[in-house]
Amino acid sequence: MRRTLALFTLVALAFATGSASTVTAAPRDLDAALAQALRAPGIDPRNSAAIAVELRTGATVYSANARRSLLPASAEKLPVSFAALRVLGPRFRFRTEVVGVGTRSGRVWKGNLWLVGFGDPTLDRRDLDRLAQKFAATGIRHIAGRVLGDDTHFDTRRDGLGWKPGYLGIESRPIAALSVAGVQLTGVHGSAVAAARAYADALQRRGISVSGRSGSRPAPSDALPIVFDLSEPLSIIVRQLIGESDNFASEMVLKELGATVARRGSSAAGARVVRSELRATGVPLAGVRIADGSGLSRFDRLTVSALAAILRAGAVDPAIRDAFVASLAVAGISGTLERRLDTRPTRGRVIAKTGTTNRASALAGFVRRRYVFAILQNGSPVAYWTARAAQDRFVTVLARS
User: Fold this and answer.
1) pLDDT for 248-304, tens place per residue?
2) Are 109 and 56 within one domain?
3) pLDDT tens for residues 373-393?
4) What is the pTM of this model?
5) Which side of the chain, N or C, has fewer Cβ within a 10 Å radius?
6) 377 and 240 in one domain?
7) Is the same domain home to 254 and 372?
8) Whether 245 and 364 share a structural domain
9) How many domains does the chain have?
10) What one-character DSSP code corresponds to residue 261?
11) 3-state SS, residue 84
């Protein structure tokens, strides 16, 4: 783990000094070599697009269908992470609270407790144990009431617009503001109840009995704050979101953008925030459609020109550069590229976001400190293995140039 984090740091530092590096002229035949690399059986060039630009100057060295609107698969996570880092900041932490309504009588709390979720995508049983430990430190040993879950920070939609029915529960667990990893649910709207039950169990392990049954209900506005837990910083969470391509985390982050800016914890509100941030940084929005955070939606659309602009903007913005660049998978070393591009020209020199559905294949990122690239390939279905091989050939050509 330390080796991977050290590599992330080195990559980020390389980009921090990249603007001062010397960029040599691209070979005359680079355009032809890149075009040849993308040719693959079963891949329709009319439903594919690719671009490569120089990181320092922004000069285009290769472009094919750069403004064609295509399904992005998990490349959708790039604009979401970019906007989240700009709006929320790399140091942003998600909060989970325990609040109560009632009175204390010695070692007894007479009333109900609420576990209130504010969208932490990393919440797990260890966090509940810490919250139980903090509560035990108050000296209370019996709850004469119930433990209730409150997930009203986000809306009640638990999947993404345009998802296949089978995605929920397989590609992502239900998108609820209070959701504990590894806790069994009784239905798509059971996250809050399951979290409350798990917290009651954590309290009992700390010697605190609870008399009432767990359930779910919004916490009253005058509830008393008792203890809270904070997630890791967003700079760490985006490494899971991007590097490991975590669908659930990306959807939670998108809804948090809506909750923070628009006071509406919905995917649609978050999508409007993402578009606003892209527009503010000069990313071309023609052909861009943000329907969810993960790229699972059939309504998502991106262009390679937008992806390249996002990547370049993230790499030069000193406020988010280190977190954004370090979130990408490293060829042959980490994340979704751990077993890919593991040869001398590309290993450790390509950092990128992958993307795969049955209709789309994507790869977008950086080659050394020199190039920004993006590739989108669509099909019905897309020829996955040949698409990926073409992507790998493309970045290998760039790495050798």
Assistant:
1) 999 999 999 999 999 999 999 999 999 999 999 999 999 999 999 999 999 999 999
2) no
3) 999 999 999 999 999 999 999
4) 0.93
5) N
6) yes
7) yes
8) yes
9) 2
10) I
11) helix
